[in-house]
Design brief:
Layout (H helix, E strand, L loop, with lengths): L1 H30 L4 E7 L5 E7 L21 H9 L6 H7 L3 E3 L9 H9 L8 E3 L1 H4 L7 H14 L2 H12 L11
Parallel strand pairs: 3-4
Antiparallel strand pairs: 1-2
Helix pairs in contact: 1-3, 4-6
Length: 183
Amino acid sequence: MLRVFDFLFSFFGLLFGCPVLLIIFLFGLFDTGSPFFFQERVGRRKEPFRLVKFRTMSKDTASVASHLANSSSITKLGGFLRRTKLDELPQLWNVLMGDMSLVGPRPNLFNQEELIKERDNLGVYSVRPGITGLAQIKNIDMSTPELLAQTDAKMISTMSVAYYFKYIFLTVTGRGQGDRVRR
């Protein structure tokens, strides 16, 4: 049932959000010359998929988890996109294609071995990764792998249609700050 919601929301989100996506794309061309950012992430059953986001850091920034990146790498447009969570909009494509869900554990990088181990032990990779979830609205990011994996497992075990909509609503209304970046 949740996959149906994912499909419908991502399809109509991309369709009606097209003007916003185009505007951000054009600003991104001037900001970094390369508005989209693609990165291989760990998906359901630990299968790789290519995540797409709007670029928020300069092009020469190393491909690491946000909490390991330096804040000086974030562009002015990128700071705005992160604060408003608009950098996540292109992930609606990942949701539409079935790589992700709107709600689920945030997909990690393959080099985050400690988090992979913790999530593997708790069965977190049995579901599609998501754009938002319990950890995001509680401001738990990938800098605390054990707590993140436990929170993800709790979300998975209690997931329902009501929680699905609750997590989306809390995210859209500004709950959670997103991934931290080193200062």
